[in-house]
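Title: Prediction job returns without error message
Component: structure pipeline
Severity: low
Priority: P3
Assignee: unassigned

Description:
Job completed but the reporter wants confirmation the result is attached to the right record. Sequence as submitted:
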Amino acid sequence: MRKNIFNKIVILGILIFLFGLYLLLSENFNIENFDQTIGSKQFNVLKWSKSIGTSKYKVIIKNNNKIIKEIITPNHELILDDLNLTSNSFTVDVIAYHKLKRQVKRSKTFNWNLPLIQLNKEEIPVLSKSDITDVTINLINNANQDNYIIVSKEGKDLKHLNIEENKISASFFKDLDDYLGTYEIMLCQDYNDKKIILHKTYLNIIPKPITDIVINQPLNNSEVSLDDLIINFSGGKYADKYYYSLQDQDGKIIIDKALIDSQQFIISKDYLNPEEKYTLIITGQHFLDNNVTKSVKLNFKVAPLNKVSQIISTKPSGEIGKNRAVRLLTYTNDAQIYYTLDGSIPTKNSIEYKGSIFIDRDVTLKAIAVKEGMIDSDILELQFKAVEKEPVIYLSPSIQNENYGVKKAGYTTEREMMNKISDYIEERLKQKKIIVYRNHPDMTLSEIVNESSKYDVDLHLAIHSNKFNGKVSGVETWIHEYEVGKAYEIASLIQKALMQIYYNPKGNRGIKYNNEIDEMRETSPKNVTNGVLVEIAFHDHYKDAKWIVDNQKKIGYAIADAVASYFGR
């Protein structure tokens, strides 16, 4: 018995000794050297000793306290001929990952002693060859006459440059059939009739990124009725093909990469089940390179069978600017929304929702969606505290770049001219301490109204010029037929201000009403808050076009002052 105990103690001692020896040996590794001797078999190779029991190494290169390279390798050496250094000194961290989940780290600092090659740009985003520009080459650390530069792509040398040449011309890339991709720019020297790469860097010519894709309908995490589902999306500029996939709540693919022929499409209700969750993925492919993609995901839930889907609000409960708007919607087609503002239960006899609900006091808003033959939606309840806030305006100059004006009058395009005038509107409004958000010329109309609706704004102000047959002239301002309050008052002030500086007193075309049920209209209360669209004269009429061109600042300031006066600024 005692002998067995003794044997076990001896075995345990041996095991402890071996484990301690293993730990000791695993700690016994160091970074050995970085050889920059031209002609050496280990040229530009970083070496470190092997750490016992290591499965992999992580190598981190730092230059001026910034990580410039990070590599994981099973080996204990690494070629470093492509470091993007801004100074000669660099630090190497090697971390050994052991099979027992231990980590051992070693660090060492080296100096780069050879010439370095730098480019004025690492990337050229393009839509066509015309976007390619010259690439300037800068050499550091005194390159000599024995050095030369090679431009290579996919292992094939394409161009040889002498050391005195300090640029790669745009024409070189444009002459290539396949100009997209990654180029190696290598600083070389011959040694014993062999090309030695002293240093190299990379240039990427890539397609301009696809802009964000935005799903406008339905909203993320919303509930939809069990019906054919209308999907509307925007964005994705530079994509020429779109696909969508549909997954159920367990991740099972129901529809896989179906081609979309427009930015509005329908998912058949046959693919949907009541009270289940789904994920929709829309992917755009770049027109230059189908491998370049952009995707967006949307989660939604299907309502119980024969029940109107839940109501969605553009604003959550909480503080809201006094007299600012809340908008409601449901994804059940032809359902009507009714609401109350006193906390009472909404019914068909409550206030019928027709667009924006303006909050001028603290309220409890309750709403219900109703459709004949279906169960009413769940009641939406929101509590708002109305507070005074600085005026906020969403400024939306025209995005119509193909609407040309009278060239002899100096009028270019509606987009360009209205953005110039909007520069003055924005400048003046900010002088008067009014917060301004603004669209971008490359946005689509759906992106504009969606962005505007995200902000807690007092006014959506669209700036346009008009056209008809070249003979009609004058100024007019548009609002929606439902907007008889604030929007009408602001539109009247703008119309009056413009007529005070317009060259023809008979050109007052007045306030006009848009009653079209078009979800993309910038005056629709279903899309924007207090939508006002100004038509600043006719750009296809010579005198009107000339007046716009010659009075940009005057027009911009007149509109801004009219808006500011409404807010007492």
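Comment from assignee: result matches the submitted record. The first helix runs from residue 2 to 27.
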